[in-house]
Amino acid sequence: RKEVEQDPGPFNVPEGATVAFNCTYSNSASQSFFWYRQDCRKEPKLLMSVYSSGNEDGRFTAQLNRASQYISLLIRDSKLSDSATYLCVVNRDDMRFGAGTRLTVKP
Amino acid sequence: GAGVSQSPRYKVAKRGQDVALRCDPISGHVSLFWYQQALGQGPEFLTYFQNEAQLDKSGLPSDRFFAERPEGSVSTLKIQRTQQEDSAVYLCASSFRSNEQFFGPGTRLTVL
After folding, report:
1. Do B100 and A46 touch (CB under 8 A)?
2. Å from B39 to nearest chain A CA?
3. Do B35 and A97 touch (CB under 8 A)?
4. pLDDT tens-digit map of A5-34
5. How far apart, in whole angstroms, are the C-alpha atoms of residue A48 and residue B61?
6. Of B64, B67, B68, which Cα lies nearest the Cα of B83?
7. Which CA distances in Å does A63 have to A23, A31, A54, A84, B96?
8. d(Cα B18, Cα B1) in Å, to the nearest integer?
9. Which residue from A82, A106, B43, B79 could staple onto B35, CB 3.0 to 4.6 Å apart?
10. Do A43 and B105 lie within an 8 Å CB cutoff?
11. Does B39 touch chain A (CB under 8 A)?
12. B17-36, pLDDT tens digit by residue?
């Protein structure tokens, strides 16, 4: 079983839709959590950190449930430019990535 | 501004050939990470340095893989006797503390 597991996708949604991604992790000693975005043939880039209290950045909301070892990302009013692969990342001393969930937003 | 750079960007190797992949982290970043990313997969952790010390190499898939960072700055990932299954994008990332990692553009290795 992989240490970080994500919905495999792909998610194909129309512009303006709300879409949610889920992620679970197996190591309860994990200390910090992130969502990264990776465009096709590009390197991953930090989208946002994830805190236990939940955090929001514009149209993006991330939540962490330590008891269930579960992380989520919600994208509201999706844009064409949101099309990418979203990687769930869990940090102990090193970063462990999920396989990613591919999102395609269509006009 | 100078980000993480990697060279070469593309490498084609014949099976059995040795390759060396270079990573120049952001100046002042203490931590440096190497990842292997196969097509359609997320990055898989290979190894981690803090300054010149290699603190974790548990992700290196075999003893053909070797990484070094002798002066705590530039790092080299060496793959000996390359095999077709080594074909992947090799990503390097650096961070100042154990938080946001900044990735380089990667080296796409193709082993024929």
Report:
1. yes
2. 10
3. yes
4. 998 789 999 999 999 999 999 988 888 899
5. 30
6. B64
7. 10, 14, 4, 20, 25
8. 33
9. B43
10. yes
11. no
12. 999 999 999 999 999 999 99
What's the count of helices (H) and strands (E) in chain B, helices before strands? 0, 11
The minimal CB distance from B56 to the residues A4, A94, A99 is found for A94
Q: Which two tokens stand for residue A96?
A: 């462990």
- In Å, how far is B95's CA from the nearest CA of chain A? 11
Structure-token pair, residue A79: 């844009």
The per-residue pLDDT for A1 is 67
Question: What is d(CA B36, CA B21) in angstroms, rounded to the nearest whole number?
Answer: 12
DSSP β-bridge partners for residue A63: A72
Residue of A nearest to B92 (CA): A43
List residues bridging with A52 in a β-sheet.
none
- Chain B CB within 8 Å of residue A103 CB: no
The confidence score (pLDDT) of residue B1 equals 56
Contact present, A4 and A94 (Cβ < 8 Å)? no
Query: Per the structure block, which two tokens stand in for A37?
Result: 């975005």
Q: Are A72 and A86 in contact (CB under 8 A)?
A: no
